[in-house]
Structure formats: structure tokens, C-alpha cells
Amino acid sequence: MAEHQLDWEAVLQTVRSDYPSLYRTWFTRLTPSELRSGELRIEVDDLSCFQYLRDHCVQAFADAAVAATGHLVCVRFVCPHAPPDGPQASSPPVSAIPLNPDYTFDEFVVGPSNRLAHAACQAVCDQPGTLYNPLFVHGAPGLGKTHLLHATCAELRRRLPGARVIYLSCEQLVNDFVRALEQGHVQAFREHLRGAAALILDDVELLRNRESSQEELFHTFNVLHQSRRQILLSAATPPAQITSLQDRLVSRFNWGLVAELDQPNREMRQAILRRKVRLHGYDLPSELLQYLADQPDWSVRALEGALVCLSTEQLLTKEPLTLETAQRILSAYHQRLARSIDLSQILQVVSDHFRVPAHELLGRRRARSVAYPRQIAMYLARRLTPLSLQVGAHFGGRDHSTILHAERVIAAECQHNHRTAELVESLTRQLRASH
Known about the structure:
With 435 residues, the protein is of the alpha/beta class. The protein has 4 domains: 3-78, GMP Synthetase, Chain A, domain 3 (2-Layer Sandwich), CATH 3.30.300.180; 115-260, P-loop containing nucleotide triphosphate hydrolases (Rossmann fold); 266-339, Helicase, Ruva Protein, domain 3; 343-433, DnaA protein, C-terminal DNA-binding domain (Chromosomal Replication Initiator Protein Dnaa, Chain: A, Orthogonal Bundle), CATH 1.10.1750. It is 54% helix and 9% strand. A 5-stranded parallel beta sheet has the order 5-6-7-4-8, sandwiched between helices. Strand 1 (31-36) and strand 2 (39-43) form a beta hairpin. It is globular. The mean pLDDT is 86.
């Protein structure tokens, strides 16, 4: 079966209607080769786009091709810039994390809340290792830190062909270091990191209580900085507010520029929504986008999930959405967001705020410095998780009466002490913004 016998437009339309969360408008730029022996090859020029398609979209395109041809079809994406298939002589010392093709500078909406961080990342691309080194960006989850890091990494790789530009989450950095220790490959791990033209680390707060990994990063930081190679880091908080982080690392993270990303205002949220609608090819009324933009407590990530819900409903019903219908759908979506918060997230947020180790919150110490944060955590667990009667079991096997007592104490505090009320509201917003 030759290429012209495949209705490519029908394939794309099926992917769009059946897999709206996966669909991107740049799919129209893909080039299908001829369909032979039941295999459809689809050519992709950009490596990040290729990795996204290979990792997430093979089944979606295969289903769409079956629907278009009536025959069983195997889909394979090919990219001239991808490493060859087949077993490698040995696994790389540091994980290769694919970049998100959506996370580019062109797709980043700039406004008062993120202008400094955006400008600094672009300056890093213009003069890596010189202007802002290190560059440390921080802000609550869902405000665009990872977007900026991916965009910077992609641009540096474009401008420095052949150079090693490493992007890692700190969780993966720790995992790779542990693996290197287990396999006796620590020297190869060090040489790989310290030979990078740029090192980009996301979620630095995940290094807390990881003494050996912090020690390793300290020496790697020194080597890269002395060689005028770029270091870019991100975290939910400024360096000094990351608990259990070595003082010497905090000091070095503050050597360069520390830039904050804040909550976007209504105009920015509206612009972000329009950009997401264009990227995904959604067809939603402007009044729905305005309604979403009026939700100040929702993170960008939550807004994007809301767009998927609304678009899917419209595709299923094949009718334009009314504002009333959208409000009903979004109410259910918001309830799911609240229920998706788990106890470990609550413990981490409370631990970070009060600078009390999470294990102390689960322990038996009765000092006020621990007991009060523990009661806050219990209160949030009762209000934000579906555990209900099981909360006590997760707090060191405490009985339910203890949990109810903590809930009553904090509820009363919220009524009579505006600082406690503001604190609980702030922690709640932080937890909901991470989804």
C-alpha cells in the first residue's frame, strides 16, 4: 500500500479526537512515508518532538492508522538526529531525560511575574557561563520553572552543537549517583557531569537529607564554575529556605542571580490559556477561557488539565459547550484535584515551612516546635485527602480521637487567630497548585 492511499488528514483527525491530551498542532508538519508491509514510518526532524512521539504517541497513531485503512498497522517514528537503535555497550553514567517539545521560549508567556527569570535564561543562552552563573530560579509548582529549564537546555544544545548540555531532575541525579556507587562507576559519573558545557538541575529541594549527593554536587559545582561553564538550578523556594541543605551549597547557589517566578495575574492566565488552546488545537469559546482565567488559585498545570477536560467533553458530545456545562465539569475536576493530594505531599510542605523533618511529624515528640506543625499536618490531611478515619494510622498509629482533637484545635485557631488562618490557606494553595 503506497503513501497516497493513506488518508493522512483522517489519521491526524482521529488522533485529535480520540487522544486530545496528546495532540499537538505541530503534528501537521510530520511527514508520513509510504505504508509497506503493515508498517507506517513517520519522519520527524526535531529530536525533542521525536522523543515525545516515540514515548507517548505510538499507540495513538497506530489506532488512527487502523481506523483510516481498516488493516492492522504498526507505526514507527524516525529521526535523523536520534541515536541508533540496539543495545549499547554500557548504560550511560547519567540518565538522558527527554526534553518536552512544548517547553520552548516561543511558547512561554512572559509577564510581570516571570520577566526576570525569563530574561535571565535567555541571557544564559547568549553568554553561557559568564553573565549569570549560577542562575537559580524558584517559585511554587506549576509556574513555569521546568518550562524555562527545558527551553534553555534546548536552546543551548542548538547553539552549542556537539557540546554536552545536561538536564536532570535532582531525583534522577541522586538515583544515578546511587547506581554509580553500587556498580563501582563513580569516576565515570563524575567525569560525565564535570565535562558538561552546561549543567541544568531541576527540583533542587529533592537533595534535602541526601548528604552524599550534596557532597558530590558541591565538588561538581566547583569544577564547573571554575571552568566558566553554565550552571542553572530550580527549586520551589530560594536556596536559604531549602531545609537540610549544606550551608556551603546554599552559599554557592547564591553566588549568581536568584530569580523568582510568582503567580500570574489574570491577563497572563488568559494569555497562557490562549497559547495552550493554540498549541493543542482546542476549539473552545472565549467565554470559557475567560472563566478559567478568573480562577486565581489554579496553577498553570491545573488550567491545562481543565482545558483537556473541556475539550474532551466537547469532542464527545460534538456540541459547543455552554458556560453552565463547563462550570459543572470544572467543579468535578476541582474536586478531583483536591482528592489527588496525598499525605506525603502534605508532610513535605509542612516540613519545609516549619523546618521540621518529616519523620518528626510522624514521631512522638511533644515539644511545641513539633506538636504544632504535626497538628497542622493532621488538619490538612483530614481536609485535603480521602483518608478520613485512616489518618491516624499514617501518623505513627495514633488513634482517631487524637486526629479529631488536632482538627478541632486548628479549626478553632483558624477562627480566632488570623495568622493561623492565613497559614492554613497558604499551605492549602501551595498543595493544590502542585496539581
